[in-house]
């Protein structure tokens, strides 16, 4: 039997209740139909909707096990909703921004660079981490100019991306850049880049053929495909 159930609301034929979790807060919403359905007079029907608090894990202890130039690694002890304890290892990331740079001749500006962790040259959309004090829009304007030598006359937010929720808090902000104008390129000293401008049809074909595997770039290119094929989006982003 569940004790300390809080009645949230009572509507005609319906009782909405809040059930306390192991942490003492009310986390589970239970909706009971007081009047049974006509085809099942023997039983009341119970519908359970679990909200975010019901799934939440409580931090008991947090330990930083590595501090680097870009990443900080933590190992935390946590309490699960069922009362059990376990550990979580994860990376804290400052966040980043990525952009779909659209040229007026229906081409996309992309970057080729060697990615050390996978030992391969990747074709990617321009991107970079958010520096302290920057907004995501400021970050991507800076990165676009530094990496590709283009300034965005038009910059629109597209979506936000949690890149790898199983082991990192990284949040990636995707933008659309149009009305591009050439400017001074100023890549970082430890970056070797090749800037390529590819027709949108070519880029989408490469994506669908599995030739592009970078996650942020795949998401950006699927958005490119959606924008080009959806008249309302195309009017907003391109025309």
Topology at a glance:
Blueprint: E1 6-11, E2 14-20, E3 26-33, E4 45-50, H1 52-55, E5 58-67, E6 72-79, E7 85-92, E8 96-103, E9 107-115, E10 120-124, E11 127-129, H2 136-148, E12 150-162, E13 171-182, E14 194-199, H3 200-208, H4 215-229, H5 231-237
CATH homologous superfamily title of the largest domain: Nucleoside Triphosphate Pyrophosphohydrolase
Helix content: 10-25%
Mean pLDDT over the full residue set? 84
Total E-strand runs: 14
Q: Give the low-pLDDT segments.
A: 26-34, 36-50
- Categorize the overall geometry: globular
- Whole-angstrom Rg: 25 Å
Total number of helices: 5
Major β-sheet annotation = 7 strands, mixed
- Tell me the CATH topology of the largest domain: Nucleoside Triphosphate Pyrophosphohydrolase
Q: Name the beta content range.
A: over 45%
Whole-Å distance between the termini?
62 Å
Number of structurally distinct domains: 3
Quickly name the level 1 CATH class of the largest domain: Alpha Beta
Element-level helix/strand string:
EEEEHEEEEEEEHEEEHHH
CATH architecture of the largest domain: Alpha-Beta Complex
């Amino acid at each position: 039997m569940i004790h300390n159930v809080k009645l949230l609301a009572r509507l005609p034929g319906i009782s909405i209740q809040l059930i306390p979790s192991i942490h003492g807060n009310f986390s589970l919403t239970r909706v009971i139909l007081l009047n049974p359905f006509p085809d099942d007079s023997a039983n009341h029907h119970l519908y359970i909707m679990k909200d975010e608090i019901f799934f939440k894990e409580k931090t008991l202890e947090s330990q930083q096990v590595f501090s680097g130039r870009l990443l900080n690694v933590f190992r935390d002890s946590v309490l699960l909703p069922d009362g059990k304890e376990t550990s979580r290892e994860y990376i804290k990331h400052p966040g980043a921004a990525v952009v779909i740079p659209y040229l007026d001749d229906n081409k996309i500006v992309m970057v080729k660079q060697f990615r050390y962790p996978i030992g391969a040259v990747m074709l990617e959309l321009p991107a970079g981490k958010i520096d302290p004090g920057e907004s995501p829009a400021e970050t991507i304007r800076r990165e676009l100019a530094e990496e590709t030598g283009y300034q965005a006359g038009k910059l629109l937010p597209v979506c936000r991306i949690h890149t790898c929720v199983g082991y990192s808090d990284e949040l990636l902000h995707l933008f659309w850049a149009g009305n591009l104008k050439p400017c001074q390129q100023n890549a970082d000293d430890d970056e070797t880049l090749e800037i390529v401008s590819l027709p949108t049809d070519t880029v989408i074909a490469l994506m669908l053929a599995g030739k592009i595997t970078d996650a942020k770039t795949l998401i950006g290119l699927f958005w490119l495909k959606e924008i080009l094929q959806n008249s309302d989006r195309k009017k907003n982003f391109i025309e």
